[in-house]
From TrEMBL:
CDD domains: biotinyl_domain. This is propionyl-CoA carboxylase. It catalyses: propanoyl-CoA + hydrogencarbonate + ATP = (S)-methylmalonyl-CoA + ADP + phosphate + H(+). Its cofactor is biotin. Residues 120-317 form the ATP-grasp domain. Pathway: Metabolic intermediate metabolism; propanoyl-CoA degradation; succinyl-CoA from propanoyl-CoA: step 1/3. The keyword Lipid metabolism applies. Residues 586-661 form the Lipoyl-binding domain. PANTHER family: CARBOXYLASE:PYRUVATE/ACETYL-COA/PROPIONYL-COA CARBOXYLASE, METHYLCROTONOYL-COA CARBOXYLASE SUBUNIT ALPHA, MITOCHONDRIAL-RELATED.
Length: 661
């Protein structure tokens, strides 16, 4: 076994690998860029080596520097994590040439699977079912149109070197095919430096289901069941689960065996994932193989009880897996939510800044939170905008889902925009609960973008009751006395008026044996909670039903959030309530005449000039942030009257880019 390994990555995955290495008694070396000097992975590792400037191309992608860091510190092996150099065959070659071990598959497997055209050919030869289509390079748009007509519309146009949802277009007719081919090719050229394009059938209403495999250098390859990753935006995963609610034992076995056959065809060792697209009738087709650890691997670990990183390290050290297919047992259900620094209310635009508050739920046997951040840390524009991966386990899907909903409600992040409200809304969605998933779920359920979760009578009751409880505790006699912690026992029986949206009810609250009794709207409810002033999450029960709400204090009242629903609730004594009707209403500033920068970023293009008439949907400017180019479009028809920013400008959020007449 190795005595010391280097982790050529950052963020949550670097931290996750360090944890396993520590448990195995292996010393760890972290590498870091200027932007990561205070990062968690640097602090967790036994040693750390600075490798360059913030941009990944000047640090985490510098193979030579990373290999030198390993040699200098006496590390014997390198774990690449995912992304960065993890699927780079040249890097593996250099690692091995330096006499070090690469903790991952062989160069041959990485290069064979790194190319979508080549891997599809290999898959066909290995007897794996592939998406019907044309497996070969396409010369020009005329040929693309001919091939698409043969396959039959709709078709998917893909870059052979593609990844991360880039270089991919759907075409429903000849015109879209021509356009899609040309734009996919130019995106492929600029993103991957490889413009080979192929075309396959677009599977309508598909699910993305993938098989985790594990192989050793003795020739054993096992499959560890499937993960369903159908909840995607921009062809990128957001929520994953294992097992899939759609897969029966026979399909699992058939997919697993094909994944193993393909892996054996390239003498696969280490952890890998074979991705399939599955249609309504459970026909499955090979998409691609990812020759690395996958972001969503925790859900597999939670239902198999295996540590995939430990297995990767053992296999890299030459040890056999020491297991057979019969030893792989799937127990219970696991769900993962990817928590991203992105604004769900603004088309998932990335957001950056400082995490002024970062309070994840407590980790237990059924709650796991993989992260690389801490309160006060900075989410920078240089890297992937993922903040954490929250995974929950339960005996059943319902139990795992309930645990996820509570954990998301407890997860308290402030300082930057994040997608927890969106995740909470999806978890509360009846269609998600039924397991009726497809890769179009987000597009179908939120056609006009995300505007918040769905308010239900239960949520409304919970918010009113919790707000009344919180306010009664805060204003109790105890909280006025220095050194005393306010408690529900000190609450005095009195009347309150509770406002939520445009309606208000009157309520009375008084201490009871289990906590408090609330009489509201002619009904009586029993509340129990250990909430004390200062807590940012309210957890408790109402008539025995668990309730978790995030809590922010406002000038007047409380902001309460659960399942993507966020409301201001004010609790007032009746005499104050009467006076409030005399207060003037606040008028919001009209910003509709401006194009505001939706996130901090760099202006890379301004597509209009002063005096231009623009149509709704027309591209106005392009702002780059967090590895992504974001096209800002006109919300309605109008005339540009002034341009306030120029190419190359770094803008803050809500800074004016241009003005309309
Ligand atoms: P897929 O390629 O099918 O989307 P994953 O969902 O596992 O598979 O995504 C892996 C992607 O995560 C990488 O291709 C990369 O873009 C991104 N990534 C790279 N490095 C990191 C990192 N340190 N933390 C989080 N994500 C990363
Ligand atoms: P990447 O390398 O970006 O991960 P994939 O080929 O794995 O590319 O595809 C990513 C996603 O795009 C899939 O999960 C699925 O949602 C969608 N997709 C890819 N190919 C097809 C297809 N033929 N039909 C329908 N959807 C597809
Ligand atoms: Mg993929």
């Amino acid at each position: 076994m190795f005595e010391k390994i280097l982790i050529a990555n950052r963020g949550e995955i670097a931290c996750r690998i360090i944890k396993t290495a520590k448990r195995m008694g292996i010393r760890t070396v972290a590498v870091y860029s200027d932007a990561d000097a205070d990062a968690l992975h640097v602090e967790m590792a036994d040693e750390h080596v600075h490798i360059g400037e913030a941009p990944a191309a000047q640090s985490y992608l510098l193979a030579d520097k990373i290999i030198k860091a390993a040699k200098d510190t006496g590390a014997q092996a390198i774990h690449p994590g995912f992304g960065f150099l993890s699927e780079n065959a040249k890097f593996v070659e250099a690692v091995e040439a330096a006499g070090l071990v690469f903790i991952g598959p062989t160069i041959h497997a990485i290069s064979a699977m790194g190319d979508k055209i080549e891997s599809k050919r290999l898959a066909q030869k290995a007897g794996v079912s592939t998406v019907p289509g044309y497996i070969g390079e396409i010369a020009d748009d005329d040929e693309a149109v001919k091939i698409a007509a043969d396959i039959g519309y709709p078709v998917m146009i893909k870059a052979s070197a593609g990844g991360g949802g880039k270089g991919m277009r759907i075409a429903w007719d000849e015109e879209e095919c021509r356009e899609g081919f040309l734009s996919a090719r130019s995106e492929a050229r600029s993103s991957f430096g490889d413009e080979r394009i192929f075309i396959e059938k677009y599977i309508v209403e598909p699910r993305h289901i993938e098989i985790q495999i594990l192989g050793d250098s003795q020739g054993t390859v096992l499959y560890l069941g499937e993960r369903e990753c159908s909840i995607q935006r921009r062809h990128q995963k957001v929520i994953e689960e294992a097992p899939s609610p759609f897969i029966d034992e026979a399909t699992r076995k058939a997919m697993g065996e094909q994944a193993v056959a393909l892996s054996k065809a390239v003498d696969y060792r280490s952890a890998g994932t074979v991705e399939f697209i599955v249609d309504k009738d459970r026909n499955f087709y090979f998409l691609e193989m990812n020759t690395r650890l996958q972001v969503e691997h925790p859900v597999t670990e939670m239902i198999t009880g295996l540590d995939l990183v430990e297995q990767m390290i053992k296999v890299a050290a030459g040890q056999p897996l020491g297991m057979t297919q019969e030893d792989i047992r799937l127990t219970g259900w696991a769900i993962e939510s990817r928590i991203y620094a992105e604004d769900p209310y603004r088309n998932f635009l990335p957001s950056i800044g400082r995490l002024t508050r970062y309070r994840p739920p407590a980790e237990t046997g059924s709650v796991r939170n993989d992260t690389g951040v801490f309160e006060g840390a900075e989410i920078s524009m240089y890297y992937d905008p993922m903040i954490a991966k929250l995974a929950t386990w339960g005996e059943t899907r319902e139990a795992a889902l309930a645990e996820m909903r509570t954990s998301l409600d407890q997860f308290y992040i402030r300082g930057i925009a994040h997608n927890i409200p969106f995740l909470g809304a999806v978890m509360a969605h009846p269609r998600f609960a039924e397991g009726r998933l497809s890769t179009n779920f987000i597009a179908e359920e939120y056609p006009d973008g995300f505007e918040g979760g769905v308010m239900t009578p239960e949520i409304e009751l919970a918010m009113r009751a919790a707000a009344c409880f919180i306010h009664a505790v805060e204003t109790s006699r105890d909280s006025q006395m220095p050194g005393r912690i306010a408690s529900v026992a000190a609450v005095q029986s009195r009347e309150w008026i509770i406002h939520l949206d445009d309606s208000h009810v009157s309520a009375r609250i008084y201490p009871s044996q289990g906590g408090a009794t609330l009489v509201m709207g002619g009904k009586s409810f029993e509340l129990a909670s250990d909430w004390t002033p200062g807590k940012t999450v309210f957890s408790g029960t109402i008539d025995g039903r668990p309730v978790t709400l995030e809590l922010d204090r406002l000038n007047m009242g409380y902001q309460l959030s659960t399942s993507g629903v966020s409301k201001t609730v004010t609790v007032l004594p009746p005499h104050v309530d009467r006076l409030m009707t005399h207060m003037p209403e606040k008028v919001e500033a009209d910003t509709s005449k401006f194009l505001l920068c939706p996130m901090p970023g760099l202006v890379v293009a301004i597509n209009v000039t002063e005096g231009d008439e623009v149509k709704a949907g027309q591209a106005l400017a392009v702002v780059e942030a967090m590895k992504m180019e974001n096209i800002l479009r006109a919300e309605r028809d109008g005339t540009v009257s002034a341009i306030k920013a120029g190419v190359g400008d770094s803008l803050a959020v809500d800074q004016v880019i241009l003005e309309f007449e």
